[in-house]
């Protein structure tokens, strides 16, 4: 086997519409014999099967289309991935319903200021595990045939299709210990947890040892990864979930588990020591916990993943929505700062380098996927229905390849 660094021996040349990989010396070529077997896309590949929506709405808007346009490389830093598996996240259901459409359409083409209908047909799905089919000229660290995983940015066409385009900065090599279905269950949830804990809370392997962290909504996709990340970094984790999820979160490493159905959450927390951070996956009145149960004037932070940012833009438009969001965030920040608490919002950020680090923790046995069910590609509507019904213990994964 060759190392990731050795892959940089590869250089790229364009032949017709395909990218052919050339190794700089014959010795390196002999070390990568599988490259001789890789076939790339051609002009004959013009359509592919995918699940699309032509309008926003309930599950009935999902439509299987065997003649969806085959993706192409628009920028030199992009790759085409043959999708082996994907999984469903709450954002997929929300996007199907139209949530965030105003902001996401601006991200898709801010110069043209697209109309609300121009994004259709839209392919949903953020998680992907698969194999690189084709690479742009500036992609240096990946080649056709590499097994990769990623969480595709929400403004791009999604992964519930046979092929998807991703940026070279979004992808990472799949840990060797994971199957395709296991790999597809992690990226979006793991990167959301990473963004909240690392970017918003300032927690990492150096700062985390000895810290006390409360996770509200600990049994969902983000919560289960957050527990494992924090335990890998040496934190004490208190998990809030329903009683039927207690065995799961304990198995993932939670030190203390609170059943929110057993009584008032605030009353149950009064018997615990104060926390250094609270990660909120639920929203609503959860932010009231911040001044009561965080250590004041110690750098403690309340971070929530439930924000009104996209909702405000959908309801009020970009300008008024951002103004309303800024006022809301500012007032909450100042209110908590006066009590010695940092109040922050966290948003998913796609990042291949972060997935590299998450992959190292997977290989070390510190993070494992939590899968509830594996469905076939024909069962995508069922996956959406299961997500809407809620309370799944782990991810629902969809096998795309046969």
From TrEMBL:
Location(s), subcellular: Mitochondrion matrix; Mitochondrion outer membrane
CDD domains xref list: RTN4I1
Entry's Gene Ontology cellular component terms: mitochondrial matrix; mitochondrial outer membrane
PROSITE patterns registered for this protein in UniProt: QOR_ZETA_CRYSTAL
Signal peptide residue numbers: none
Keywords: Membrane, Mitochondrion, Mitochondrion outer membrane, NADP, Neurogenesis, Nucleotide-binding, Oxidoreductase, Transit peptide, Ubiquinone biosynthesis
Name the record gives this protein: NAD(P)H oxidoreductase RTN4IP1, mitochondrial
UniProt source species: Leptobrachium leishanense
Gene giving rise to this polypeptide: RTN4IP1
């Amino acid at each position: 086997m060759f190392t990731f660094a050795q892959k940089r021996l590869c250089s790229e040349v364009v032949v017709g519409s395909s990218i052919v990989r050339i190794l700089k010396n014959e010795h390196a070529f002999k070390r990568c014999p599988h490259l001789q077997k890789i076939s790339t896309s051609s002009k004959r590949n013009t359509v592919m099967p995918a699940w699309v929506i032509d309008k926003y709405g309930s599950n009935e808007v999902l439509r299987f289309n065997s003649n969806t346009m085959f993706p192409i490389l628009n920028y030199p830093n992009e790759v085409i991935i043959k999708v082996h598996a994907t999984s469903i996240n709450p954002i997929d259901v929300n996007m199907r319903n139209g949530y965030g459409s105003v902001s996401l359409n601006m991200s898709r083409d801010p110069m043209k200021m697209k109309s609300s209908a121009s994004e259709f047909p839209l392919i949903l799905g953020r998680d992907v595990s698969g194999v690189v089919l084709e690479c742009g000229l500036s992609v240096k660290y990946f080649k056709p045939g590499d097994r990769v995983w990623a969480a595709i940015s929400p403004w791009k066409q999604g992964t519930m299709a046979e092929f998807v385009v991703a940026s070279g900065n979004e992808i990472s090599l799949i840990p060797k210990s994971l199957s395709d279905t296991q790999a597809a269950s992690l990226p979006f949830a793991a990167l959301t947890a990473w963004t909240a804990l690392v970017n918003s809370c300032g927690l990492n392997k150096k700062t985390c040892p000895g810290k006390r962290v409360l996770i509200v909504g600990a049994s969902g996709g983000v919560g289960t990864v957050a527990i494992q990340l924090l335990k890998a970094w040496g934190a004490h984790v208190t998990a809030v979930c329903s009683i039927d999820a207690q065995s799961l979160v304990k198995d993932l490493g939670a030190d203390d588990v609170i059943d929110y159905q057993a009584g008032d959450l605030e009353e149950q927390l009064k018997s615990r020591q104060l926390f250094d951070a609270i990660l909120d996956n639920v929203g609503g009145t959860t932010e009231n916990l911040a001044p009561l149960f965080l250590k004041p004037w110690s750098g403690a932070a309340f971070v929530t993943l439930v924000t009104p940012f996209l909702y405000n833009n959908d309801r009020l438009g970009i300008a008024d929505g951002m103004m309303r969001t800024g006022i809301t965030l500012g007032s909450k920040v100042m209110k908590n700062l006066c009590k010695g608490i940092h109040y922050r919002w966290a948003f998913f950020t796609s990042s291949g380098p972060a997935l590299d680090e998450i992959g190292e923790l997977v290989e070390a046995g510190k993070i494992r996927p939590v899968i509830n069910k594996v469905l076939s590609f024909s069962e995508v509507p069922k996956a959406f229905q299961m997500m809407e019904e809620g309370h799944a213990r782990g991810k629902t994964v969809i096998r795309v390849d046969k």
